[in-house]
Amino acid sequence: MQPDSTTPNPPHLRNRSRATWHRKASKPVSFWMLTLIAASLIHWALPNYRWVLIHMFTLGIITNSIVLWSQHFTEKFLHQPLPESARPWQLRRIAILNLGIIITLAGQLLHTSVTYYWYLTAIGAVIVSVSLAIHAAYLALQYRNSRKTGTAHRYGASVISFICSAAFLSIGTIVGVVLARELASPLKENLLLSHLVLNILGFIGCAAIGALMLLFPAVWRTQAHYERPGLTFSLLVTGTLTAAIGAGLGYSHMSAAGLAIYIVGLLIPAGSWARCVQTVLTDPRDRITFAAASVLCAPLWLIGSLIVLTYRTATATHSAAITLPTMTFLVGFAAQLLIGVMSYLLPTTIGGGPNATRTGLTVYDRAGLFRSTLLNVGLAAWLYTDNSWLRVVLSILAMGSLAVFVVLSPLAVRAQLGVIRKNREPLSPATAPKLNQITAGLATLALVIAAFGGLVPTPSTPVTTGGTGKTTTVDVSMMNMSFSPNVLEIPVGNQLVVNLRNDDDQAHDLAFDNGVTSGRINPGAQTEITVGVITTNMAGWCTIAGHRIQGMELHILVTGAETETTTNPAVQHKPTKPVNNGSDDSLAPVTTR
């Protein structure tokens, strides 16, 4: 395989070619952003919506962004811009990549409609995998040529991180193909953790850290040393491989060791970034922006999530007991970093001089610290509370602060081009950070949380005295948006205890009319609920937004006085619809004592 070309264009033609290529290559990112927003609004109508939304973001938005900007930075870091003749082939490769993404998503959207859905998913994933492998190969060829021609720069280590990043996704998508099949536990949980490690830490993490080692001081408008990049990326790659292999083989301690190695690798550049922040805080001026806050908070979410995941992996008795911090990885780290970096890169790429660039940056920073507060504090509250409707509102505030980027982009481009064409005056820089926006963000979140009764509402205490003095214990499973059994016939006056297990692939809970609630239960987890003495009919339901309307209800029906013989209790439960969980619901354990 040969590189796209070896003879660059003259500078003025090169800049025009690069701008045209950027504009065309970034169109898929804009398309997937708009598609994700539209899909989020109708997610309840989408089959397998959680999987679809996550992969619409990771494959559609993140993958296209990394492919685009890793090529951009490779040329910049190696001082080896490609000629205009190379751009059409790059655009064709991006088109093929997006064809694979569309086929992959279509397979999962059709999984309830057609029997061959897995083959669609597999074909699409293979196209994505091959596309990223080819992308990695081209970056590697550019790096090799730069060493031959003597243009290789000391930032070449970041280019190596881009190469490793693309290779990790190429492997991670194949693991995803296997996961799309129905797998038994614990293989499913093992591969799921391996898939997350390869794609989040390997693909997104390596690319992000490789870029941030130079972008962080640029966004904060200060200087920093490019410290020990070789050691940093060696630890990141070693940690990713160790954690992914350990997870796939079911060796939790090996996986935890790999995650710990990865954390050590992150701490090396984090020290340099902390010094950048310290320098700016002594004279902040207009340097504390949404972009600056994003590139600071995103690595903190990554490190915090990794510490939690490392602990869970090291202490878990089996892989099914490991709860993956998916939302913190995707929203706190990946989405925040992407929007923050693009808010800086797009104006600087358009250029046009200091006044024009500053105007574009200023438009992207509208309500910047307010949005950053809603995002980071709102996300923390969203993850902490069990109140379903509060979680919905907090998620809208947090995600909305990112989605505003779609609205600001055309405004920023129009304003910046207006300055370049001398159709308008440039915007003046701020003289101090707008810290009042942080106060406004905290006040907004406080009002929202207070309106829902706080983050942790006071639980109701069940009535456990009186009645017959006997206890009825029922095993209830949650799966496929239903409870099984979903009708419980309980003798009047008996105390009811429910052993509740989540056999689904998403979180659920159970609340009763008397105020007793289970709290949120993650996939594979179980809990015991003391409902109290049953004297009247009551209902129970999943409080997570949208789940009750999809059928997650159960009913407690009171029966007459219990007979004296307790070895044959008059306790029955009759599921109103079958649940395909591999067992006969009529044999589910129900005991009275």
UniProtKB/TrEMBL annotation:
Keyword Membrane: yes or no? yes
- InterPro entries associated with the record: Cupredoxin (IPR008972), EfeO_Cupredoxin (IPR028096)
Q: Where is the composition biased (Polar residues)?
A: 578-593
Q: Which residues form the EfeO-type cupredoxin-like domain?
A: 468-532
Q: Which CDD domains match?
A: Cupredoxin
Q: Keywords in UniProt for this one?
A: Membrane, Transmembrane, Transmembrane helix
| Coiled-coil region | none
- Residues of the region (Disordered) are 565-593
List the transmembrane segments.
29-46, 52-70, 91-110, 116-138, 159-180, 192-219, 231-251, 257-276, 288-310, 322-346, 367-384, 390-413
Name of the protein? Cupredoxin-like domain
